[in-house]
Each structure stands twice: as structure tokens, then as C-alpha cells.
Amino acid sequence: MARLHNLVNNDELKQRMLDSEEERTTLSFYQYHHIDNPELFRNQLYRRWNQLGVYGRIYIAKEGVNGQVSLPTANLDAFREDMYAIPWMNGIRLNIAVDDDGKSFYKLKIKVRKKIVADGLDDSSFDVTKRGKHLSAEEVNQLMEDPSTVVVDMRNHYESEVGYFEGAICPDVETFREALPIVEEMLEDKKDAPIIMYCTGGIRCEKASAYYLHKGFDKVYMIDGGIIEYARQCREKGLPIKYKGENFDFDERMGERIGEEVVSQCHQCGAASDTHVNCANDACHILFIQCEACAEKYHHCCSQTCSDFNELPEEQKEALRGQVEFNGTRFGKGRYKALKKDEPLIL
Ligand SMILES: [Zn+2]
Ligand SMILES: [Zn+2]
Q: Is 3's pLDDT higher than 80?
């Protein structure tokens, strides 16, 4: 019987990958689909894709599959063919990473989980595979011309703060789960209007659109592949880009500039800036927007308190930890005007 897990130790695997001259491609994919026996499906995939030299992590759940993998570029066609031979995966989009050396993974991990995305939803009430219609970039631009169209940003406040589609509803939330009922309320009288939803890569909208269809909204659309794919299609086809500012990528802690303009402000001084940073004081670590001048003034911290604290010797910091309140103690993610900035640390 073929092995279904890797038995060589991690260090050796990593070294093998780093030593290899083989050109690799990194890509991601997802698809919501009812899978009756995720365990069995996992084992089949492992056998097939291990043979193709696929590394990375793939989550399988009763609701579908979500993967980020790398594979020898020479096997890309064979991989696509193998994937598309599974009827419900046929034709799903493979998002190929552009600026990537293909060295991000060194073994294949396929895990069965409860969900393919941790979204905090108890979604037994609606069918995630009955989702809204996908729109190409061209269709998005067309439908946005219609004055009755409502555009909704399904991301969190710190994502939409640095970039959004003009006129979009951007809920002031920190989680996807929080956003669903709030947006529902905002759209109460728009049940018949065309609604376009978007998020970073499209996966959140798969679920959000299914949720709103279930809630009786009639014309629910989503941007196919999210902002990333929208921008790619616009550039490829020379279409006007209706997105302003940056597309924030939480994993990378930085944004990809899509629109020319900077639409957000430094949380400390209000100057135009869209640079997300974490407070340099580890006891605070709040995620916020900071301009270069404030980075210098506050030593990369979110406040004078944090800056003062960060200058203290380690033992003193250790003793004070838990006794001093920082911005990060009170807010998960920074909001403009919410940060306390200028109070010095009083001991
Ligand atoms: Zn500033
Ligand atoms: Zn701080």
C-alpha cells in the first residue's frame, strides 16, 4: 500500500527542497462542494498529488477544499489535468503566485478539518454551494454603471481602510462573522437591487453570497477571484480599474497597490499613509497605519506609552507587563482617532 504521510524528518525534507534546482510554481485554489467522506477524498488526493511532487497545505472539509501548494513547474499541466478529472473541481481557478521562488513548502500536508476557512460561522442553516453569480472584471465595471447597484466590501475595517471600490459599503468590523448581520441590516431595503460583493481573493464572498441568497436577496453577485483577480483581469485587458488604493494582504502584512491614490491616513498624525505596521512594543503589537515621520517620532510604536515602555531594560519590562495598558490591550486592530498617542508612560 502506498504511504499516505511523509516519514522523512522535516529538516531533511527542507534541505532537500532548498538544494533542489528544480523550478517550482506556487499556486492556490479553493472550491466549496459537499464532500461526504473527506477522509477518503484526502487519501485519494494525497496518493495522486504526492506522486506529482506537490508540496504545501490543503484543507479538506465536508464543505469543500482549500489549498496552497507548490509543484515542479514541469508537472503543472499534469496537475491541472489530474485536478480537473474530478468533476466538481473541473475548471476551478488556479491562482498562480507571481513573485514567488516556489520554495515556500517542502512537504505535502493534507488535513481534514471542520471547515476550509475559519470563518466562525455556524452555517448548517444554508447551503454554501448555492452561491451568487461570479462576475468577470468587465462585468463588474458594467454592472457598477447601473445606479441601482450596491457594492459591498466583505472584508474587515483594517483591510477596507487602505483600499476599496468607490461608493462601496465598508462595514466597520473586525471579523467576517460580524460583517454578515451588519451588512444584512444595511441592505434591508435593497432586496431586489443588484448587489456586488467582494473580498481579497473571493473565498469569503462564496459564503457571504450564499448567506444573502438564503436570506432572500435576489440578485447577488460576487467578483470572481476577488480584488486580486479583478486587478489582474483589468491590467490584462486594459480595462479601467474602479478600485482605489491598496489591496491589503494580512499574511504578507503589506498591500499590493492597485489604484494610484492613497485613501487612508496615518493613525497618529492624520497624514496620508497606507502603511500597516504592528506596534514595535511586543506587549502591545496593535496593527495600525503609521507614516514615516511618526515611525521616527514614536520609534515604530503606536503611542508615547509604548515607545517609553520599549526603551526600558528587559527585566523592568517583564515586571510591568500586564500592569500597563497599551492600545493593543484595548483594541484588536487600530482605528483612526481611537489610538491614544501622546500620553507618556507613568511609573
Ligand atoms: Zn503620522
Ligand atoms: Zn503600542
A: no
Domain count across the chain = 3
Q: How far apart are CA 33 and CA 35, in angstroms?
A: 6
**260 in a domain, yes or no?**
no
Residues 26 and 60 in one domain: yes
- What Å distances lie between residue 299 and 133, 138, 195, 279, 280, CA to CA? 47, 45, 44, 9, 8
Distance between Cα 207 and ligand 1 center (Å):
37
pLDDT digits (tens, 9 = 90+) for 207-256: 999 999 999 999 999 999 999 899 989 999 999 999 999 888 765 546 77
Residues 136-167 have pLDDT tens digits of: 999 999 999 999 999 999 999 999 999 999 99
How far, in Å, from the CA of 298 to the mean position of ligand 2? 10
The whole domain housing 199 covers 133-237
CB 298 within 8 A of CB 268: yes
Nearest-CA neighbor of 167 among 155, 177, 153, 178?
153
CA of 146 to the centre of ligand 1 (A): 38
pLDDT band at 119; cut points 50, 70, 90? confident
Domain shared by 231 and 139, yes or no: yes
Q: Which DSSP symbol is given to 275?
A: -
Residues with CB under 5 A from ligand 2 (ion): 279, 281, 284, 302, 306, 326-327
Q: Which residues are catalytic?
A: 199
Q: Which ligand is nearest to the CA of 284?
A: 2
**Nearest ligand to residue 324 Cα:** 2
Distance 327 CA to ligand 2 centre (A): 5
305: CB partners within 8 A, 6+ apart: 324, 326, 327, 340, 343, 344, 345
Q: Which three cell numbers stand for residue 315?
A: 527585566
